[in-house]
TrEMBL record:
Any one GO biological process: transmembrane transport
GO CC term, one of those recorded: outer membrane-bounded periplasmic space
Pfam family, one: DctP
GO molecular function: carbohydrate binding
Name the record gives this protein: Tripartite ATP-independent transporter solute receptor, DctP family
Keyword set includes Lipoprotein: no
Alphabetic keyword roster: Receptor, Signal
Length: 332
């Protein structure tokens, strides 16, 4: 995106949101995410808002903008870097084009269990290491939301890895996801989340890959009646903050927002696990069949890709080694 376009977007957002403020006015803190208001990400940010305003409501007015109302994550991330938006929930797959080490979470089958994944992404040392380039990146992760495991869903059953051959699947933007689908023998079609429903309806794609909430919250289960549990990826949604915003805060207020991110993280995890169970039952009522596949057969197809990805992107090796060691030690 050109600087001219970014500035134009920022000015438009500023106009919509109303940047005018007097010296006495509260500081407006804007939070953006792409999900609907019943989604765990939103519930997490409500906890964030309540925490900040209960502790320092005289100073901050926290406003949440759900459902991509400020735009797609890639665009909003640019606004975060400019401090036009202060916080954003964004998948690591959307960040890897800004900093290649975030691509580590797109490596298929990096973790062997969802429990190991959740412990890793909430480790303060991991978040600190991810944010080590924050001054250059313009944003810093303060917490993480779980997004569960990513699995395939489609119009036709995926019982084995061979059932992916020749099919077109939507993936999140990022070269790692394209390589993964090629390794599976399928064609990758990157597109924004909001475009997936119509693409499925119109036959532009045969399926997609995500968690169970995509079936219900985005109504993808109206078109795709088969959901196969292969668990090929576990990509967190990071709570990223504008580095410009953080750098202007007092130590006390910075800790306030860091603690708010932890509260958001806690609330989102709790809501996530409850919502997934509900979504699965809801999807069954929509006519979706859930299929347990041999995940090892899927894993074997893409394990050779690990070394290729590390060779092509050495920036993620330190985090890859850390994740691999963490996963191994927690399996003992």
């Amino acid at each position: 995106m050109s600087i001219k376009k970014i500035l134009g977007t920022a000015l438009a957002v500023a106009s919509i949101l109303g940047f005018a403020a007097s010296a006495e006015a509260k500081t407006t803190v804007r939070i953006s995410h792409t999900q609907i208001e019943t989604h765990p990400d939103h519930i997490g940010f409500v906890a964030f808002k309540n925490f900040v305003e209960s502790k320092a409501g005289d100073k901050y007015d926290v406003r949440i903008f759900p459902n991509s109302s400020l735009g797609a994550n890639e665009k909003v991330l640019e606004l975060v870097k400019m401090n036009s938006v202060q916080f954003l929930s964004v998948s690591t797959a959307n960040i890897e084009s800004f900093n290649k080490k975030y691509a580590v979470f797109s490596v298929p089958f990096l973790f062997t269990s969802e429990s190991n994944f959740e412990k890793f992404i909430t480790d303060p040392e991991v978040l600190a290491e991810l944010g080590s380039d924050a001054q250059k990146d313009g944003f810093r992760p303060l917490g993480a939301f779980t997004a569960g495991t990513r699995n395939f869903y489609s119009k036709t059953p995926i019982n084995t890895v061979d059932d992916l051959k020749g099919k077109k699947f939507r993936v999140q933007a990022g070269p790692t996801n394209v390589k993964m689908m090629e390794a599976f023998g399928a064609a990758a079609t990157p597109m924004s989340f909001g475009e997936v429903y119509s693409a499925l309806q119109q036959g532009v794609i045969d399926g997609a890959e995500n968690n169970e909430l995509a079936l219900t919250d985005q109504k993808h289960g109206e078109v795709c009646k088969y959901f196969s549990y292969d668990g090929h990826q576990m990509c967190p949604d990071l709570i990223v903050a504008s580095e410009k915003f953080l750098s202007k805060l007092s130590d006390e207020d910075r800790k306030l927002f860091e603690d708010a991110a932890k509260e958001a993280q806690k609330a989102e995890f709790e809501a996530w696990h409850k919502r997934i169970a509900e979504a699965k039952e809801q999807a069954k009522k929509m006519g979706v069949t859930f299929i347990d596949v041999d995940a090892n057969a899927f894993r074997e197809k893409v394990l050779p890709l690990h070394q290729q990805l590390l060779n092509e992107n050495p920036a993620m090796k330190a985090m890859y080694d850390k994740a691999s060691a963490f996963d191994a030690s927690n399996n003992k």
